[in-house]
Amino acid sequence: MDNATLRELTLRHGTLVRDRLVPDHTSLAGWYRLHTSGVLVRLQPGASRLASAAPTPMMRIEAALAAAMPGSM
Question: Which pLDDT value is given to residue 20?
Fold first, then answer.
């Protein structure tokens, strides 16, 4: 998967959510390969950022909300 596609799938503050990538764009194994190869960096369970993107506080908040159970807010 190329970085342009990954950038298109990021949320507003640069977070990638596993549910948006798997299974439509890649497999679960592909998700983990992106982490192993250093393309993605884990922020929360099921939420990551591109390694090329500098981490920000808003990104961490967005990742925490994305990792929360649906309806938790």
Answer: 86
